Amino acid sequence: SLQCGIVGLPNVGKSTLFNAISSGKAEAANYPFCTIEPNVGVVTVPDERIDVLTGLINPQKVIPTIIEFVDIAGLVKGASQGAGLGNKFLANIREVDAIVHVVRCFQDENVVHVEGKVDPVFDKEIIDIELQLKDLESVAKKIQRVEKSARTGDARAKADLAILNHYKETLEAGKNARSLTYTAEEREGAIGDLQLLTIKPVIYVANVDESSMISGNEYSEKLRESVKGEGAEVVTLCAAIESQIAEIEDPEEHALFLSEYGLTESGLSRLIKASYALLELITYFTAGVKEVRAWTIRRGWKAPQAAGVIHSDFEKGFIRAEVIKLPDLVQYRNEAGVKEAGKMAVEGKEYIVKDGDIMHFRFNV
Ligand code: GDP
User: Fold this and answer.
1) DSSP 311
2) Intervals of the chain under pLDDT 70
3) CATH-assigned architecture of domain 300-363
4) According to the model, what pLDDT value does residue 82 have?
5) Which residues form the TGS domain (predicted)?
6) Ligand 1 binding pocket includes 209 (Cβ within 6 Å)
7) C-alpha of 214 from chain center
């Protein structure tokens, strides 16, 4: 499944947020193939549609989609030079699909700030610079290799070199690699093998105190302003309260607690949804009396590739897909009703699966 790495300076609230994540109610038993390590928290992706489906079908089993969050603690100033457990943590970041960057936006005299004062933009830049320095190292090494081929007149190498140099200048200017807008094809030859850290999609979490949970505060505003150019999302929450919310299992009590704080949704739920959207993930469903299940795919995937998420045989032997839309299922009550009304679509190999599709794959074995 997909992994988001939680990074940030010490004492900004990473562990508190991570605790909220790992005390969530993801039923690990449903996911026998994911190895759960102590620094990995699994959460289900909140999705109202699966509740609607469950209400209609009343299946024996319901399996929502999950995201994993990895606590990558220990990133400090100088990490790229090996300070702290620098290199180990940077290697951990290389493996995740996206970064959740927690920034301290709360005042608390009892909580030491490693840099002396609360300054979210400065804090964010400390982390960014460490990641940029590491990326610069990777880019410089690659440039050395490509320069040789470029000198022999290789056109491909020349084009790659130009792009590599652009990344180098960008990183040297203190900007993240994600701020460049090359297409995937253009990037592939130049940096495709480098797994740059600052090119990974990022969400900033402004960890504010309880009183600023809804409105945010001057710190979270400054942070939001500073990341505008990156097109990154900022999720404002209070990690301390989130960890309390996550403890409450009873749904009614949960809702009551939220409403007492004037919230309709937990910050964690917003963070999970934002992560899902950031990764351009969408969900399709399979729905039967035995099991209603949500499956994660990337936006733009065609039907056979989407089927491959269930089993590789589904992809190899793909014949066609029967597709139902949830509103039709709600209107006509069941599959037979949808079919009778002529609302069930039969789609082939080229069909691009849409978010929320209810799919039934037909395949050869
Ligand atoms: P980490 O080092 O980034 O993992 O930070 P921790 O999660 O351990 O938090 C550091 C300290 O800040 C702890 O004493 C937390 O209780 C406190 N803390 C975390 N989140 C908040 C918050 O939202 N408000 C306040 N006032 N304190 C917080």
Assistant:
1) -
2) 24-38, 74-87
3) Roll (3.10)
4) 63
5) 280-363
6) yes
7) 23
Q: Helix or strand or coil: residue 272?
A: helix
CA distance linking residue 4 with residue 233, whole number of Å: 14
Ligand-binding site membership of 16 (annotated): yes
Contact present, 142 and 164 (Cβ < 8 Å): yes
Cα separation, 24 vs 70, whole angstroms: 14
CA–CA dist 284, 296 (Å, integer): 7
Q: Which CATH superfamily is domain 130-191 in?
A: Obg-related GTPase Ych/YyaF, coiled-coil domain (1.10.150.300)
Which of 93, 91, 68, 63 shows the shortest CA–CA distance to 295?
63
What CA–CA distance (Å, rounded) separates 120 from 206? 8
Residues 59-94: tens digit of each pLDDT: 999 999 888 899 887 666 666 666 555 667 788 889
Establish whether 14 is an annotated binding residue. Answer: yes
Report phi then psi at 211, rounded to 5.
-70, -15
Beta strands in the chain (DSSP E): 2-7, 40-44, 61-63, 66-71, 98-104, 202-207, 233-237, 281-287, 291-298, 318-324, 345-347, 358-363
Mutate to test the pocket of ligand 1, among 111, 207, 236, 271 (most ligand atoms within 8 A of CB): 111
Q: Which atom of ligand 1 is nearest to the CA of 102?
A: 3
- Residues across the chain: 365
| CATH code given to domain 2-45+66-121+199-278 | 3.40.50.300
Q: Quick check: CB of 14 below 6 Å from ligand 1? A: yes
Domain boundaries, the chain: 2-45+66-121+199-278, 130-191, 300-363
40 forms bridges with which residues in the sheet? 70
